[in-house]
Design brief:
172 residues, alpha+beta, five-stranded antiparallel sheet
Length: 172
């Protein structure tokens, strides 16, 4: 039997035939399909992108993340947008250590890369109220049970004060 008619079983279980099999298998190995040699055949463009990404400063990344958050807020419907703008202002003023970022497409605020609180628009989940939520990273513990999410229908001066206090407690 000639070599190009002999079935070849390659490591991931598929059976291919002939010389082409050997060439395809070699190319897959080089490209990293089998987990060996991953990254060997990236090309010069991929290397340039990686180098450029490493060069960007943390300040540049933080500024871009804040622009993304503000853009997401600007896309919201009027009522959600007004509340999100006020929440953003209160959170960034009350806890400057929190960095704005998008989290599952929602404005969120993180400490050391971990989300502490987030704003969830009513429109996104077709709810009758927006939500200000806190993750398990927030230090809001109060006995054996405490609130981790708050419904918002309007952001008044009183609500702003309460949000400011909660955010300060969350990062304390």
């Amino acid at each position: 039997m000639s070599r190009d008619k002999v079935p070849l079983k390659i490591p991931h279980g598929k059976i291919l035939k002939g010389e082409i099999c050997h060439e395809q298998h070699r190319k897959q190995r080089v490209r990293g399909v089998h987990g060996r040699g991953a990254g060997r055949d990236e090309g010069p463009h991929a290397q340039e992108l990686k180098t450029a990404a490493r060069r960007r400063s943390r300040a540049d990344k933080a500024a871009e993340a804040e622009r993304d958050v503000l853009a997401k807020i600007a896309e919201m419907q009027d009522s959600d947008r007004m509340m999100a703008e006020r929440v953003h202002a209160v959170v960034t003023a009350g806890a400057p250590a929190l960095a704005p970022k998008l989290w599952y497409g929602m404005p969120a605020y993180a400490l050391d890369g971990k989300v502490v609180c987030f704003f969830q628009s009513a429109e996104k989940f077709k709810a009758r109220y927006a939500t200000l939520g806190f993750s398990d990273q927030a230090k809001l513990d109060d006995g054996t049970m405490w609130a981790a999410g708050f419904a918002l229908t309007e952001v008044t001066a009183e609500v702003e004060a309460r949000i400011g206090a909660l955010v300060k407690q969350a990062v304390s």
